[in-house]
Amino acid sequence: MGLGLAAVGRPGYINLGRDRDLPAERTVEALRARTHALLDAAYARGVRYLDAARSYGRSEEFLADWLRARPDVRDVVVGSKWGYTYTAGWTTDAERHEVKDHGTATYERQRAETEALLGDRLDLYQIHSVTPDSPALTDRELHARLAGAAVRGLTIGFSTSGPAQAEAIRAALAVTVDGTPLFRTVQSTFNVLETSAGPALAEAHEAGLTVLVKEGMANGRLAAPEAPAPLAAVAEETGAGPDAVALAFVLRQPWAGVVLSGAATTVQLTSNLRAAAVELTEEQTARLAALSEDPAAYWAHRSRLPWH
Fold first, then answer.
1. Is the overall model pTM greater than 0.70, yes or no?
2. CATH classification of 2-303 is 3.20.20.100, yes or no?
3. What is the residue range of the signal peptide feature (predicted)?
4. H/E element, 147
5. Mean pLDDT for the chain?
6. How far apart, in whole angstroms, are the C-alpha atoms of residue 79 and residue 64?
7. Residue-range domain boundaries for the chain
8. 157-215, pLDDT tens digit by residue?
9. CA 108, 112, 115 angle in degrees (round to 5)?
10. How, if at all, do strands 258-261 and 124-130 pair?
11. Strand 185-189 and strand 155-160: pairing?
12. Residue pLDDT, tens place only, 117-135
């Protein structure tokens, strides 16, 4: 399992319950301290993949500070993403919190910004939220620049979002530079409510890509007290929390390489990480799979979640 910093790198995000999880005064220093506490707890519990993004507020900065303060920590894999620019100005009520652009100019600017913070600690750089119509799938100049970064030792990947994730994944698998596949990783949304990307993620795994799974908790919809009744029932049977059961469902997928916790508190993180010890029966797994929603409905619901 890995730790994603989307929920703690900026004061506003769409996760449910965030008003309870974080202090009312979400200063930069308060969220820096929260991020460092989560990173300490995650590392102590064996987490070795850490996930940030240019649009996650100051997540790269907080992560870079943590790494500098712990020079002996050399066994983590650090990933970040480019393609969205954070525009909320450290507020929770901005009209727009992030702006998407997959052009080469944005790549060069954000790559320089990421390098200034994380330097050679960055291992994986992903295009943020590729959709089937993204110019990042067809821009040969961009592909050449990404391939150049790969030659210099950076792993290149992409993440997906939206109801057509499977289509985006399959299109990205076809992107090559001089006959060599460009992408080494894919990070997609997959959870008991949104399973539509599963077959394409299996294809990506078969093609040799590492699959990272985000939003396994459906932005808090699968945590208590919001968890659907069938999920809560399975949690009762296993003795684990609904969050751990939801993440165990994802971990059970044979193609899942890294499953991210998006915890905002160390208590949540501890509960999330119990997923690795939850053993689901075939019957329980089937009950959870039956919760799957139509992807268009799922993503429409997600788009209506407020920025807390």
1. yes
2. yes
3. none
4. helix 140-151
5. 97
6. 12
7. 2-303
8. 999 999 999 999 999 999 999 999 999 999 999 999 999 999 999 999 999 999 999 99
9. 135
10. unpaired
11. parallel
12. 999 999 999 999 999 999 9
